Amino acid sequence: MSNNFKDNQPITATKLMEEFRRYQKGSVSRRHFLGVTGLGTAMAVMGAATPSLMPGSAQAAGKLSNKMVLSTWPNYHNPKTLENFTSETGVNIQANVFGSNEEMLAKMQAGGGGVDVIENTNYTFSTYVKLGLLTELDLSRIPNYDASTQNPKFSSASTIDGKIYGVCKNWGTTGIVYNSKKIKSNPKSHKDFFDVTMGAGSGHSILHDYQLTTIGAALCALGYSFNSIDKGELAAAEKLLIEAKPHLFAITSDYQPGLRAGDAWMSICWVGDGKQLNTDLPEMQYFVASDGGELWSDFYSIPVNTPSLDTSYAFINYMMDPKNQSLDAEVHGYPSSDSRVTGMLPESAQNDPILYPAKELFNALEFGAAESLTDPTRAEVMARFKSA
Amino acid sequence: MIDDTNAKRWLTGVLLGPTTVWFLFMLVLPLVVVAIFSFGMRSPEGGYVASFTFDQYFNLPSRLAAFKNTLSYAPLGTLASLLIAYPLAYYLAIKVNQKWKLLLLVLVIVPFWTSLLIRTYAWIFLLGGKGIPSLLEFIGIEGVRLINTPFAVIVGIIYGYLPLMVFPIYISLEKLDKRLLEAAADLGCAPARSFFQITLPLSMPGMATGCMLVFILLMGEFLIPAFLGGGKVFFIGNALVDLFLQSRNWPFGSAVAITLVIIMLVTVSLYMRLAMGKSTGQDESLM
Question: Which CATH number fits domain B63-278: 3.40.50.1240, 3.40.50.150, 2.40.50.100, 1.10.3720.10?
Answer without folding.
Answer: 1.10.3720.10
